[in-house]
Amino acid sequence: MRGVFSYIGRNRSLLVGTLLLTALALFVGIGTLFVDTENARSLSVPVLQAPSWDYPFGTDRTGRDLLAVMIVGTPLTLRIGFIAGILGVGIGAVLAFTAAFYRGMTDTLIRSIADIGLTVPSLLVLILIAVSIRGSLTVNEMALIVASLAWLNPTRTIRSQVLTLRERGYVELAAMSGMGGPEIIFRELMPNLMPYMAATLVSSVSSAILASIGLEVLGLGPMDAPTLGMTLYWVNFYAAMINGWWWWWVPPIVIIVIVFLGLFFVTIGLDEIANPRLRKSA
Amino acid sequence: MSEAVLEVRDLRVSFAHPLGLVRAVDGVSFSLAPGERLGLAGESGCGKSTMALAILRMIRPPGRIDGGSVRLDGVELSVLNEEAMRRLRLAGIALVPQGSMNSLNPVMRIGAQIEDALADHGVSLSRTALAERIADLLETVGLRAGVAASYPHQLSGGMKQRACIAIAICLRPRVIIADEPTSALDVVVQRQVMETLARVQRDLGAAVILVGHDMGLMAQFVDRLGIMYAGRLVEVAPVGQMVTVPRHPYTRALISSLPSLEHRGGLQGIPGLAPLLRDLPSGCAFHPRCSLAGERCRIETPALRPMGGNAVAACHLAEPVA
Amino acid sequence: MQAVYVIKRFGVFLLIVWVAATLNFFLPKLSGQDPVRTKLLQEAAIGGNVQVGMEQMVKEYDKRFGLDRPLLAQYGSYLYDVGHFDLNYSISSYPRTVKELIAEALPWTVGLLATTTLLSFAIGTLLGALLAWPRAPAWMRYLMPPLWALHAIPFFLFGLILVYVFAFKLQLLPMFGGYSPGASPGLTWDFISDVAAHSILPALSIILVSIGGWALAMRGMMVTTMGEDYVVFAEAKGLRAGTVFMRYCVRNAILPQTTALVLALGQILSGAVLVEVIFGFPGIGALLFHAIQENDQFLIQGIVFTVIAALGLATFLLDIAYPLLDPRISYRRT
Ligand SMILES: Nc1ncnc2c1ncn2[C@@H]1O[C@H](COP(=O)(O)OP(=O)(O)OP(=O)(O)O)[C@@H](O)[C@H]1O
Ligand SMILES: [Mg+2]
């Protein structure tokens, strides 16, 4: 454990990222204890109050306490990101391993699908899906929609990483000593891939959050959930910026920025572990 | 010694490494007469390439040149400014670096890669004169003039190596340093390339430092051989002398590990492991692997001493032969 | 060799167009209902002057995509329409066609995207290359952390901040739209400078955010390239530092960077859609937002199809230009 901490101390990107995300977790954790989260619903409090002792973050036009909205909404947004990210990397990893091991037609097929899928702007396809099943989406459904495309990038990156490891001869050695396909994956490749997979996971979570916020800002999100993206939708809807209600849009923007910066620095830090060569030039 | 074209004195290079300083070149001295061919051999990692780069002041961080002097025709290089040093590369000393399979820029035609060398050294010629000069150079190394229009991936390994030699001689340098010029080629092509190198070197009157592992191949092309061990020169002697009466125990081990001079011999067969440069044994760095090593070898680092003939060796136990 | 390469790439382009059409056809059917028909009936029920047109459309729609027809036949009809670039009428702006609306909006988006992508790619790549270069000026190192931090946040979020600072607080630049209300579009100096003023903030929010990413990727590629044997040889040739930098290092490091650009086009476009929404910039993104708000299914599908096809085309063009950059490409497996 000491080793982990001292390593994080030296890996500055990982340190900064972890600190940002921890701060956010503390904000949510402590907030849940002291703030009435029921006030994240409409018509709970007086409308359009500037920040004050009673409402430190102010209130919005639909009568929600924005501090409560942030405390409830932040974990919701993160949940969408994590569900979609984990599903994406899971599916991606399975496809990538399948491609890298069977090679030939299987590989060509999987690689082509991923490559063509990546040329297509994901937001547009997600919009098409969301519009088609319009109605009252829940946060979990939202996560599944986003996950439907979240496997493309992991498939591509993990596949190329597995192929690199393959070329380095891990696999041939293991195969010679009589291991089967799945065994090779878990005994020989996984340990080498772990930091890489972790970096891919974090960046997938980040992309998933970006995609979900995009859909929400366009008005295709879960209308009655106070996620960060939906908050921005209402900000835009009620033209809060032009009306000078700055307290309505500053907190969600700050929190979203912290989320993305935190995830970005963690990704960079994990990349540094996965590719030691980058360490010196940082 | 004033007639030496290249004179290296006490050259030292080290690399900063988290676990300690790596002394890759540790007090190397030798000199090179005009037109002479010197071979440099030694185990992988003993500092041959590093020394070649250090002569041209091309060591990059985390490495640095810690000291020593390099003189070309009596001119001290360590005091030259960066621009003067740049002009001297290729024009004065040409280096064909290790890994020549990849030494050519993959996205430029061969002709253009010769052109930019000429241009950056202030050679301005008309288009036709330039094309003619490039064609001449290519023909000198045994390539068709048409190769100028080819990209590196369109050439075979031997052709690429010849192209590198063409670039190296384009400004008629005084010294050519060839770092393992043939290690990636098959035996037949190896020999052809070496013969080409020897021929152009003779025509130019340039001195050559030939770096390589393959003592058998080198012995046929060089006049003198230098043996490096752990960043130091441990023996330098004319080829005939080195092969018949090697003075240093390491040289003896190297020679006896060759199956025969006609075959590619590796350096395998020497007992013990190559030393870690950042954690060298005290005294003579070779002593842990040396069957003759005595008390003194463990304590005192031997210096190069004359061993009779034109040979020098750094071994406490070697006796000069009259 | 070249011909095979071009044909292959064109095949991929056709494949992308087909994927776009297929997604458009099947995704709306996922819900088990027919959202298009539902919407058309709603509109027709509202009545008014478009009622006749709507009813006409419902009839036409039923004839070709009615549930009584086999799915494959419907799919065939759809592919036929799309193949002729017949994207139907816009439901919300009837009797205007989807094709017309897209044709109006597309130049705005293409202009915005082409400028911002090329600028940020060029600036970011150059910065990244210099960062990896030991002789680069030291102040550059201080420029990068803020750019990397920016790179982590979405375009439109940074756009919001820019709007607040430069349009709302300082009132230096217009806040909304592609040109001032009342301006008469035309190739006049006034109109062009008006459009330029309106484009600065949307463009900046894309450029400033993108630069860091390109710089980061390019720096990594440069570090790898600078270790290559041909760079060592270039230096040993006594070439000027500038020659080694541009013709040996950058020239090679830019190859994977260009591949990355092709792959990133989709992402950039997704981000730009939201920027247009935030700024009310009259391009495809804003049109799409309008279509979503109005639940104009034909318009949404038309935009999704057109944009994917356009990106496929851009990818195709970049792909066939790529061998000019890398002479090895037509020989290697593509
Ligand atoms: N960039 C570097 N960073 C750290 N250490 C280095 C670097 N380059 C070389 N070294 C060290 O310097 C030593 C000498 O390396 P060098 O490449 O000169 O050996 P060599 O004799 O040319 O080997 P080979 O026969 O394999 O080419 C090596 O042991 C290596 O550890
Ligand atoms: Mg070497």
How does this structure look, described?
The complex is a heterotrimer of chains A (282), B (322) and C (334). In chain A, 75% of the residues lie in helices and 0% in strands. Chain A has 12 helices and no strands. Chain A has helices spanning 2-10, 12-34, 66-102, 104-119, 122-132, 139-150, 152-167, 170-176, 181-217, 228-237, 246-274, 277-281. Chain A starts with a helix and ends with a helix. An 8-stranded mixed β-sheet of chain B has the order 6-7-8-3-9-10-12-11, sandwiched between helices. In chain B, helix 5 runs parallel beside helix 6. The longest helix of chain B is centred in the middle third of the chain and has 18 residues, at 187-204. The model of chain B has no long low-confidence stretch (mean pLDDT 87). Chain C has a domain at 107-283: MetI-like fold (Orthogonal Bundle), CATH 1.10.3720. Chain C has 12 helices and no strands. Chain C has helices spanning 2-26, 35-46, 51-65, 71-83, 98-132, 139-151, 155-169, 189-226, 229-236, 241-279, 284-294, 297-325. In chain C, helix 7 packs across helix 10 (241-279). Chains in contact: A-C, B-C. Chains A and C meet through helix 4, helix 5, helix 9, helix 11 and helix 12 of A and helix 1, helix 6, helix 7, helix 8 and helix 10 of C. Bound molecules: adenosine-5'-triphosphate and magnesium ion. Adenosine-5'-triphosphate (ATP) binds at residues 15, 17, 22, 24, 42, 44-50, 62-63, 98, 277 of chain B. Adenosine-5'-triphosphate is lined by residues 15, 17, 22, 24, 42, 44-50, 62-63, 98, 277 of chain B.
